[in-house]
Amino acid sequence: MNISLKQLRYFDAVARLSHFGRAAERCAVTQPALSMQIQELEQTLGVQLLERSRKGVILTEAGREIAARAERVLASVRDIIDTAHCHRGVLAGTLHLGVIPTLAPYVLPVALPLIRRSFPDLDLHLRETQTQTLIAQLLDGGLDLLLLALPVDHPDIETIRLFTDRFLLALPKSREISTNRVRATPELLQQDRLLLLEEGHCLRDQALSFCNLRRVDNIDTFGASNLSTIVQMVSNGLGMTLLPELSVDVECRRGDIKLMRFSDPEPKRVVGLAFRKTSPRKEDFAALGKLIAQAATRQIREMAAA
User: Fold this and answer.
1) What kind and span of H or E run contains 163?
2) Which SS3 state, helix, strand or coil, does residue 105 take?
3) How far is the C-alpha of 225 from the C-alpha of 54, rounded, in Å?
4) Could you tell me which residues come within 8 angstroms of residue 1 by beta carbon, excluding any fewer than 6 positions away?
5) What is the bridge-based pairing of β-strands 219-220 and 194-195?
């Protein structure tokens, strides 16, 4: 039997996504090409792997067992490639890094020049999207490493803690605050509309958890998918929001935002790296994490001193 890794990869994508179109997009091929490869795989194996219907795709009993084995085979192949990268030297070769949207615009501009100077042989590819999508792509081999907010709770993923990023309360500059109030509190957030990112962003969940505001009427997302949109709303007097300290230098340049630190315990997020436990490139990841933490903490210190 001649089974190709391409066939296994295409089948694995359909098994994960239960959809031919999305699987083809994930594999960067046309849907007919993906379907043909899976049909050839079924013919070679002599069993039906998928039930196709108008409502979607369902794995057969044989398909479920073979999908689990295919996942292990593809993981082993990824580890072979990563092992080869390790022998080229620390942070040499190709690395696919995924970053969440509430970190990418603030960490990458200061970290990338440092990374390029320190590791000129590194071929870095970036992917920016929400946490759950990044984790799925890490597990199926599309990404090697993630930069995101911790914790990540998955038995096949290992993490490295890099730095802490505190949250500040952002209000319109025209907003009057009692002269007796030096620090913000969660109760202050009850007094105005709280603007947060749309669902799916971990920053939204962290803010809600701190404020204990999961069931109140003053939360509004505006369907916003980035912090810049939220800051524009705040600057125009439409509410308040929580901003990561790391983002302040970029998002508050115009000066029409008032920032307040919170009373203890201050809300914060822990930023770190996540990677597959089976990856042999942990030395690479630790070296990259050290540079990212160095760049980010320097930026945070400079903002706090300003």
Assistant:
1) strand 157-172
2) helix
3) 32
4) 44, 45
5) parallel
pLDDT digits (tens, 9 = 90+) for 184-225: 877 777 777 888 887 667 777 777 777 664 444 556 656 677
What tokens were used for 134? Answer: 């990044």
Rounded to an integer, what is the distance from CA 46 to the centroid of its chain?
A: 39
Q: Is the Cβ–Cβ distance between 207 and 170 less than 8 Å? A: no
List the alpha helices (DSSP H) in the chain. 5-17, 20-27, 31-45, 61-86, 104-118, 131-139, 202-211, 227-235, 248-251, 282-305
- C-alpha 219: how far from its chain's center? 23
Least confident of 64-73, 193-202, 236-245, 260-269: 193-202
Closest to 135 (Cα-Cα) out of 299, 291, 286, 273 = 273
- Which residues are CB-neighbours of 199 under 8 A, at least 6 positions away? 221
Please give the model's pTM, rounded to 2 decimal places: 0.75
H/E run at residue 57: strand 56-59
For residue 83, give both structure tokens.
């092992």
Listed residue (166, 128, 116, 93) closest to 292, CA to CA: 116
Can you say whether the dihedral through the CA atoms of 170, 173, 175, 180 is positive or negative?
positive
Nearby residues of 169 by Cβ (< 8 Å), 6 or more positions away: 184, 188, 189, 240, 241, 242, 243, 259, 260, 261, 262
Mean pLDDT over 257-274 rounds to 91
Does residue 176 carry a pLDDT above 80? Answer: no
Taking the C-alpha atoms of residue 147 and residue 294, their distance in angstroms, rounded to an integer, is 14
Which run of H or E residues covers position 220?
A: strand 219-220
Run of H or E including 164? strand 157-172
Whole-number Å distance between alpha carbons of 236 and 166: 24
Phi, then psi, of 283 in degrees rounded to 5: -65, -40
